[in-house]
Write a structure and sequence with these properties.
The structure is a homodimer of 228-residue chains.
Chain A: H1 2-30, H2 37-44, H3 48-51, H4 58-82, H5 89-106, H6 108-115, H7 129-148, E1 166-167, H8 169-174, H9 180-201, E2 209-210, H10 212-227
The first copy, chain A, binds a DNA duplex (30 and 30 nucleotides) through helix 1, helix 2 and helix 3.
Chain lengths: 228, 228
DNA sequence: CCATGTCAAGAGCACTGCTCTCGGTTGTGA
DNA sequence: TCACAACCGAGAGCAGTGCTCTTGACATGG
């Protein structure tokens, strides 16, 4: 019952992963907009219609690519964070930020797929939210643990003209019992991180400055100053 | 010689602007990827091939749309800045930041065209760099003038582990004789501003928090703290 | 008044996502 | 063992895209 079904299903799983693999290769070279089901099928030596046996639509294929990319980014950040001493919160912060940037620069098209202009007529299904929050969860954890260890100055300097934050339950859970000021500063730093990286990946910094590595380090240090 | 040619040329100019107008409408509703020359021609009741008399390629049409969008954003920011008292540097900063955000939220597809994932196989011609820097120039001017007026604390707190910035001549000119620390902090704030706005426009903040207006104000205030 | 240059339109090419049908294979329950 | 059902690949086809080339109509200027 197992091996018998496996004959077919193994071939199916094989071909499915083969499709995603070549699709990922196309995505990395041509970009999301240039990803063509027909081209993928052509590379695999099969009819374009056959691909639809494995992915009911291009969006479905895109979804698995998105999930894979989120996981790849998440893993990279998790590893960078884990490589540092647990109590070295600024070091963990810097390492995680650089991990995001390194991954983004190494996989610009995947980064564009995750954080760039949304693909038209594509609605991200529920399956993506888990992997999507993986890298962000690392950054949030660093902030929360730093706050618990008393290594965070953020909470001590609440901003005067600050209205209350209306956070979603998910985010509130991510930050546990951290005070609002901490969450607000973390949100600010989070978006700022991706602002720089996005500009760098999308070429907005192209004619602006060289030596981006050290300039980015400075940026991350400023963000850390807001937090730690 | 003038009026005679004008008969033809006026018709040509008329149709050209008519094309860009409907193209801009399509862009605003469908997005850059959904912009179709054939659809524009259909809306105008003419053959698709006729459009190519006015724009040699889709990229060319896209370029004028990009320039228009950059100018619209630039004008919005310039007006917001001009509406404030010249010496109220934090106020000008806040107003300009909010102007960028307001324009972006009002024109999400145009924003995506300017700051989102680059359009595949599209290379921005030189004509775009002028309008592109317009909105950024406003922010830079605020920082420079604040520094000259001695209203900038940024220069007083240079960052310890900071390598030298290798700026392009254009940017160096934009910031005149401002010290490196000021430029670095301005760069950081600039990217952070667009990081938040990009996340908001592209839906990254969708399930994260409500009351974005006040949360954004807080973000801008943090950025101001880094600068002023 | 006629040659010249401009223009819109149509056909056509190569490409896309996607659907449907037609055989062929494979797996399974009777 | 055999038949039936499920699955699978290939091909044709539809509607759409950007873009090119040719054709015929029109206005303009010498």
């Amino acid at each position: 019952m197992k091996a018998s079904q496996t004959a077919r299903e193994r071939a199916r799983a094989e071909l499915t992963s083969e499709i995603t693999r070549t699709a990922r290769r196309h995505l990395a070279t041509e970009g999301a907009a240039g990803l063509s089901l027909r081209a993928v099928a052509r590379d695999l030596g099969m009819a374009s219609s056959a691909v639809y046996r494995y992915f009911p639509s291009k969006d479905e294929l895109l979804t698995t690519l998105i999930i894979d990319s989120y996981n790849a980014l998440g893993r990279a950040v998790e590893e960078a964070d884990a490589a540092r001493d647990t109590s070295d919160f600024p070091g963990r912060w810097r390492a995680s930020c650089h991990a995001v940037r390194d991954w983004a620069l190494a996989h610009p098209h995947e980064y564009a797929l995750l954080f760039g202009s949304p693909v038209p007529d594509y609605r991200a299904p529920r399956d993506t939210v888990g992997p999507a929050s993986r890298s962000t969860a690392v950054l949030a954890r660093i902030v929360v643990e730093a706050h618990r260890a008393g290594a965070l100055r953020a909470a001590e300097r609440p901003h005067p003209d600050a209205g209350p934050l209306k956070l979603s339950p998910t985010v509130r859970e991510l930050f546990c019992d951290s005070p609002e000021e901490v969450v607000a500063r973390a949100l600010s730093a989070w978006t700022s991180l991706y602002g720089w990286i996005g500009f760098e990946v999308f070429g907005q910094l192209d004619g602006v400055l060289e030596g981006r590595e050290s300039a980015f380090s400075r940026h991350v240090a400023y963000l850390a100053d807001v937090l730690f």
